[in-house]
Amino acid sequence: MPFIADRLNRILPSQTIAITQKARALKAEGRDIISLSAGEPDFDTPEFIKEAAIAAIRAGETKYTDVAGTQALRKAVADRLNNDFGLDYTADEICVSTGGKQVIYNVMTATLNAGDEVIVPAPAWVSYPDIVALADGKPVVVQTKPENGFKLTANQLRWAITPRTKWVMLNSPCNPTGAAYTEDELRALTDVLLDYPHVWVFTDDIYAKLAYDGFVAKTIVQVEPRLRDRTVTMNGVSKAYAMTGWRIGFSAAPVSLTKQLVKLQGQSTSNPCSIAQAAALAAVSGPQDFIAEMVSVYQERRNLVVSMLNEAPGLSCHTPEGAFYVFPSMQGTLGKTSRGGARIDSDEAFVTALLEETGVAAVHGAAFLTPGYFRVSYATSTELLREACARIQSFCQGLS
Asked: The whole model's pTM is what?
């Protein structure tokens, strides 16, 4: 009898985390490493948020809270979503979890039965299909096209829906492409979904505040309120508030589903950290102007990275609308050999040789269900980005 559960054979370790850890190990060995693999802001958590956490510690707010989070935080989250997107959520529809990843895990585990299908547009964040599989569901990967900006089309969605479809997952702006859906593009999808009342929508809006060139991200319920009763809106404080390590995400969903999410969370992690909740309360209810300052810096970095990568032989880089990633094609390098003798026969071979020969860590596209590309995070200093892109240019120039 095997000791390890069969369900663990359905999933793989996070490849983004694995590459980040490899880069850290090489750096610890004294190698000159520039890591562009982690999806983490390089900005520090704003001082007023840190001070709120310190004040909570000093006030003795170190006890258990409600499983779904404090009433104050749930109300503030509802208010933030309502103010940002013109919605009407209440505190009873909010569940605060230990990061956005737990939100996804909670929702899929609470709703999927064996064989239920979840539509996952690719390129997609590495954890989506594995969390679905861990919950006994079947990820149905729909490959989007670069000519459509790596966005799911209405025809693709309609084609993918079957009687077993329970969810469609949307991420806008997207990790890894940075693609963001316009209101019209979302409307086309919601028009399809209205024809299939058995299909729910999970919308991952974690990067919604990080959009460029005047783009304003919309969310599903905002575009089509008739889908409110079968939509889970997920967000959190990690990206827009530079609070990845605080581990606070939240879901907004109908009360009937939210009660089940709280029931599940009560038998797993229970409440999120009370101090992190106090910090998140300050974040979502306090000043928001610093976000625009971060976005301005990110936009400059995006423009720099796109420009420099497009100057590298064999690479082609689309300009994304949001998040802090670019997803360039490396297909023009396939079949070539690096200066160090590495044969570039896949995107994984490309990023492996790039790391070993130049010290630049990126993530191969196959990790995001889309071979032939690689992901670069520009959530690091402009100086390091410029140096990293120069190394990538040199690496590509040396291919023969």
From this structure: 0.95
Are 33 and 152 a contacting pair, CB within 8 Å? Answer: no
Return the closest-CA partner of residue 283 out of 69, 51, 39, 42.
Answer: 51
Burial of residue 77, with CB atoms counted within 10 A of its CB: 0-12 exposed, 13-18 middle, 19 or more buried: buried
Please say whether the beta carbons of 375 and 368 come within 8 A: yes
Quote the tokens at residue 257.
């589903």
Instruction: Per-residue pLDDT tens, the chain, 400 aa: give them.
Output: 889 998 888 888 777 777 777 778 888 888 899 999 888 999 999 999 999 999 999 999 999 999 999 999 999 999 999 999 999 999 999 999 999 999 999 999 999 999 999 999 999 998 999 999 999 999 999 999 999 999 999 999 999 999 999 999 999 999 999 999 999 999 999 999 999 999 999 999 999 999 999 999 999 999 999 999 999 999 999 999 999 999 999 999 999 999 999 999 999 999 999 999 999 999 999 999 999 999 999 999 999 999 999 999 999 999 999 999 999 999 999 999 999 999 999 999 999 999 999 999 999 999 999 999 999 999 999 999 999 999 999 999 999 9
Region at 276 (left for phi over 0; alpha for psi -120 to 50; beta for the rest): alpha
39 burial type by CB count under 10 A (0-12 exposed, 13-18 middle, 19+ buried) = buried
Are 382 and 300 a contacting pair, CB within 8 Å? yes
3-state secondary structure of 238: coil
How many angstroms separate the CA atoms of 290 and 70, rounded? 25
- The C-alpha atoms of residue 377 and residue 325 are separated, in whole angstroms, by 4
Reading the block at residue 49, the tokens are: 């948020």
User: How many whole angstroms separate alpha carbon 37 and alpha carbon 121?
Assistant: 21
Task: Identify each DSSP E strand in 11-146 by its residue range.
Answer: 34-35, 94-97, 117-122, 138-143
Q: 5 φ, ψ to 5°?
A: -60, 145
Question: Tell me, what amino acid is at 307?
Answer: S
Q: What share of the chain is helix, strand, coil (3-state, %, to 5)?
A: 45, 15, 40
